[in-house]
Every structure is written in structure tokens, then in C-alpha cells.
Design goal:
The chain is 55% helix and 0% strand. The protein is an all-alpha fold and 168 residues long. The relative contact order is 0.17.
Length: 168
Amino acid sequence: MNWVMKRKKRSVTELQEASNALHYEVTMFRSLAKGLGSGIAGKSVIGNALLESVLMHVRVLIDFFYADNPRDDDIIAEHFFLPLPDEWTNIRPPKSKTLGEAKNRAHKLLAHLTYTRLSTTQETKKWDLIKITNEIENVLRVFLQRVPKDLLGSRWKASSVAQGKDEQ
């Protein structure tokens, strides 16, 4: 990976703080997906806002786990495995078609005002959030099993997020 040579190795403290930001993303993703799945917001502006928020967190998590072209200040999973970032790329599940499409759709239909939005139909607006959630949870589980525990920040200590539960 060419970007490794250009990257600054992060300190333990920086990685712990970065992991706390990851913790926030995971907590928000799980909590919002649970709220959306409950049907509490229905088909309303609030329901749309919940969906959009979940999808933004999905996009952030996909970028974290599968950094295709990271910027210098992006927090990515490989940082936690330096000096051997290939360790992460070798043990993580391959990026599925579902996650690739979710990222691209969130990019085109949510994060940017694009002409692609104009060609979407009610049918193509649907998201398979159960499948997306299961795949995000799977890669997160692998990350948490393999990441050096001393690199996880204070939010992960005794956190229910690490056990697959959302926090209140």
C-alpha cells in the first residue's frame, strides 16, 4: 500500500482518541438503526432524517474499514495495525457488493446533490438496512477481536458497544 509510506505513524494516545471517535460512530449507527427499525418515526420527515443519519454513519464506517483512497487526516482501521497494515486488509472480510453499493448510493443520493437522484424511483430508493447492518457488525466484530486492546480509548472500556449492544 503506497499510502503507508506517506502516512505518519500515530501515537497510542492519538489512536485511543481516534478509537473514541469510532465508538461514537458505532453507537450512533446502532442506536439510529434500532430507532428506524422500530418504526417509531413512520414515513415522515423524521423517518427520512433517521434514515439519512444512519446512512451517513454507514458511509463513515465503510470508509474506516475499507479505506480506498484515504486523506492524510482520515482515521482508518489500518492505523491500528501499523507497521503492518496488511494485517488488517488480510483479516477483514472482503468489502461486499452490499457495502460497496451502500457507500456509493449514500455518496450520490445523500452526501451530494447529484443528477443521479433525479433517476431514482421508489423501488431504487429502498435500502436493505438489515443486510447492511449485519455486514457492518461482522467487520466490526473482526476489528474488535484483532485490534490491540491498548489502542482502544476510554469509551471502549466496559462499553456495551464492544459487545454488540447500543448504549442509551
